Amino acid sequence: MNTPLINKTKKIANWLEQWQDELSSLRRLSDKTLLAYDRDVEQMLTFFTSHLGEPVSHKHLQELTPSDWRAFMATRRQNGAGNATMARSLSGIKSFFSFLEKEGHATADSLAAIKAPKKKQTLPKALPAIDAKKLIDQGGTLDDEPWVAARDVAVLALCYGAGLRISEALALTKNDLKEQNGLRILGKGGKTRMVPILAAINDAINEYKRLCPFNPGDNDPIFRGVRGGPLNPRLIQLKMQKLRSAFGLPNSATPHALRHSFATHLLAGGGDLRAIQELLGHASLSTTQIYTKVDTAQLMDAYLKAHPRS
Residue 11 catalytic? Predict the structure, then answer.
């Protein structure tokens, strides 16, 4: 049995733990992002251990050159990493070096010279309004248990009618529903936003609460599984798979596609881009601006299909 290769000194390992603690407690990154960042840095350390012939030390980090980083990126590319993966990898590594620089352990000068590859911009796949409405109106027809059907309809209605991420919908508590002006949503990065709630969505939530056999506390998620625990998002994803099959919808019809549809349909109806940014909880307007391209793409598709000279 081969002994696992040690890729870092104890000092570097301690700094990694401190960095992860800071990301978790101060920046409040998700567990998924923390794991991805940790994996990116571990891959970097493993490469340089092989590249340098010994575990990476404090001295090594200080002496890395742009050519060392280019060798690392080239190896990642040879191993099949695409632009998006490499850009994310570089982001995690730069975060670690920014922490080291802030703490006075090392500088990120050599890394600053390395530019992340441009990610291919993919447009969100929004559903036609008629299909999105069908999913909400008939989303409960595939369940024998009335309360489960009402639950799934309410969750899907929140994704399409309020533009919530599936995680945000499933995290809603009774206290979140008590706000006078709408829903209080705790989004990414621990940021809270208010989202107006349509009467139809409110009715769907109330119908679910009326039928639900469980009574969670004021600070507990209202959406429950059949055994009474918090609802697993995988169950909503599986429900969408059944609905796609039943209604003949494409594989792109996912719970997150309903959020994309919310933004796209608002924009097509004349919604203000900054207002949509606030409703979605995007930190940057540039993230929301992708929906202007979605709308343009749909307009061009309709034009090319309908115009007699197309």
Answer: no
Look up the pTM and report it.
0.61
Q: Which one from 188, 193, 242, 244 is the annotated catalytic residue?
A: 188
- The span from the first CA to the last CA of the chain, in angstroms, equals 66
| Choice among 58, 94, 105, 256 that is catalytic | 256
Place of tokens 């993966």: 85
CA 199, CA 203: separation in Å to the nearest integer?
A: 6
* pLDDT tens figures, 26-58: 777 778 888 888 999 999 999 999 888 888 888
Q: What is the DSSP letter of 81?
A: -
Q: 184 catalytic, yes or no?
A: no
133 vs 20: CA distance, rounded Å:
42
DSSP H helices in 103-179: 109-112, 129-138, 146-161, 166-170
- Selecting among 165, 209, 224, 239, the annotated active-site residue is 165
* 56-96 tens-digit pLDDT: 888 888 888 888 888 998 898 888 888 888 888 888 899 99
Residue 8 pairs with which residues in a beta bridge?
A: 56
β-strands 183-186, 192-195 pairing: antiparallel
User: Which 3 state secondary structure label does DSSP give 184?
Assistant: strand
Mark out the alpha helices in the chain (DSSP H runs).
Answer: 10-25, 31-52, 58-63, 66-78, 83-102, 109-112, 129-138, 146-161, 166-170, 199-211, 233-247, 255-268, 273-280, 285-288, 290-306
256 is catalytic: yes
